[in-house]
Design brief:
This protein is an alpha+beta fold. Strands 3-4-9-6-8-7 form a 6-stranded mixed barrel. A 4-stranded antiparallel sheet has the order 2-10-1-11. The relative contact order is 0.20.
């Protein structure tokens, strides 16, 4: 019975091929839009999240402006922060501007950064040559430095700056590495920035400084929130519970907000694309009502020969369902092409969303059943005598 009903449905659709295609055009557009939009949103948000992750996921940035009595963090304070459960490393961040001397020439307004070996381990600035600063350099307060590629290019004539001398604060420093533009949050090393990175303890001693006002804490995966809460408690105690003495910034919180934003955008776009599916559903219902009117005689004859109302209803409901699934299948193909085209055009990796495909096809099937039910019900309730008389 089902096989014969399917054959009749297929014959009916093929008999009005152009009308059937135009009827499901809304379904095609809606499904294609859902797949393409969800895939593009996931691709764009994925690219954004990867950039945020590179800027400091799993990291807590502390800015300690301090109080009139305690204007920052000291070495023992850093030890207390490092002892927090879930914290794997602590990297102070210092920044000053000073004059330097290279090859006998004075270089004004050089950005001098104080960093620990943890900075090079976790931030992984791009080293074009040489090596990073190490824990061994920190322990020995070595007079070594990493310079920016712009400083090497502009002031070290004749090749590489590695193992050559740069003078700062009247002290000689051996260049051990050359770094490209920084990808860290502070963005302190640009394409044309003349910058020098020293062990932070060395920079503290050169400037006669005692306090540190900026620190990065690196945490274990999944422990950032707990570590942030504990760091907040430790800092409150250090600054006599003055909450205005410090601020904490957790990149993971921002990434969680971005995830929520992605979900909201997907829901919004699905809602917009679903309008096309609803329009397509209305088109299917309209076509099925016309089909019922055109085939009144056929329906009357079938019922006169013993066909039950349920058989008639099933035939028209299957026809509406097959039409919507055809539209869904074509919509998936167009959605795939649209996703690949957007990926090439935007220059980002847009992977086809299986969630979008299932949602689009499922929605199209639901639309077919929903909007096909009323015409199918109408056909099944036709009186065979009236139907044959009208024919």
């Amino acid at each position: 019975m089902i096989i014969e009903t399917l054959r009749m449905v297929v014959r009916s659709i093929r008999r009005h091929a152009m009308r059937s295609f135009l009827t499901v055009l809304g379904i095609i557009i809606g499904v294609a839009a859902i797949i393409a939009l969800i895939s593009m949103v996931e691709g764009v948000m994925g690219a954004i999240n990867r950039k945020f992750y590179g800027l400091g996921a799993g990291k807590i940035t502390i800015q300690a402006v301090g109080t009139p009595i305690k204007t920052g963090l000291e070495e023992e304070d850093l030890a207390a922060l490092l002892a927090i459960s879930g914290v794997t490393a602590c990297s102070p961040s210092l920044s000053v501007t000073a004059d330097a001397v290279a090859e006998g020439i004075t270089i004004e307004d050089v950005t001098v950064l104080g960093r620990s070996s943890a900075y090079f381990t976790h931030e992984q600035p791009k080293l074009l040559s040489g090596r990073p600063l190490t824990a061994w350099d920190e322990g020995r307060h070595s007079r070594v430095c990493v310079i920016s590629t712009a400083l090497e290019r502009d002031h070290f004539v004749g090749g590489s700056a590695i193992n050559r001398t740069l003078w700062l604060y009247g002290q000689p420093f051996t260049v051990v590495g050359v770094a490209g533009p920084s990808r860290a949050v502070d963005g302190t090393i640009g394409e044309d920035t003349h910058a020098v990175i020293l062990p932070y303890e060395v920079l503290l001693s050169l400037g006669g400084r005692r306090y540190i006002q900026s620190v990065d804490l690196y945490t274990q995966t999944g422990r950032t929130a707990a570590a942030e809460a504990e760091a907040n408690r430790v800092l409150s105690a250090l600054f006599n519970y003055r909450t205005d003495a410090f601020t904490l910034f957790n990149m993971d919180r921002l990434m969680a907000v971005m995830d929520e934003l992605e979900q909201l955008m997907e829901l919004l776009l699905i809602g917009i694309a679903s309008m096309a599916l609803l329009v397509g559903g209305i088109g299917i219902m309209n076509m099925m009502l016309v089909s019922v009117s055109e085939r009144t005689g056929e329906i009357g004859l079938k019922k006169a020969l013993g066909a039950r109302a349920g058989h008639i209803q099933l035939q028209f409901l299957l026809e509406a369902l097959i039409l919507s699934l055809m539209g869904g299948g074509l919509g998936v193909l167009f959605g795939l092409f649209a996703t690949w085209g957007a990926s090439a055009l935007l220059g980002i990796r847009c992977f086809v969303s299986s969630y979008g495909i299932l949602l689009g096809v499922g929605f199209s099937a639901g639309v077919g059943i929903l909007f096909g039910y009323a015409p199918a019900r109408k056909a099944s309730r036709l009186n065979p005598i009236d139907a044959l008389r009208s024919h």
